[in-house]
Design goal:
By secondary structure, this protein is α+β, with helices and mostly antiparallel strands. The chain has a single domain, classed as Alpha-Beta Plaits (2-Layer Sandwich), CATH 3.30.70.100. Helix content is 35%, strand content 35%. It has a four-stranded antiparallel β-sheet, with helices on one face. Strand 2 and strand 3 form a beta hairpin.
């Protein structure tokens, strides 16, 4: 059963470009190395560029576990964690109700 999840966080203003580059590298890794991560998208808030949300769809719990325990996650965390403001990353799980994507 797929797992739908978001991650919300905010970074220091002077860290935005560094975080965006880290996101691009990280998502590139996910695309090549994690076939069970069927969607991984990162969005930046338009009216506050210090805020980001990541959208995940994992094929199943094994895919989520593989993702969460990768060296790439640890590298990404080492970049953003010291730059967080307003609290830690907030992860939220969801159930799919409807979608226009097959």
């Amino acid at each position: 059963m797929p797992i739908y999840q978001t991650a919300h966080y905010q970074v220091q203003p002077d860290a935005v470009e560094e975080i965006k580059h880290a996101i691009e590298d990280f998502v590139g890794y996910v695309a090549v190395n994690e076939p069970g991560s069927t969607l991984y998208a990162a969005w930046q808030q338009q009216d506050d560029p210090t805020r980001f949300v990541h959208l995940f769809i994992f094929a199943d719990a094994d895919a989520q576990h593989t993702h969460g325990n990768s060296d790439a996650v640890r590298r990404f965390e080492s970049v953003y964690t010291p730059r967080l403001v307003g609290g830690p990353v907030v992860f939220t799980d969801y159930q799919l109700v409807a979608s226009n994507v097959p």
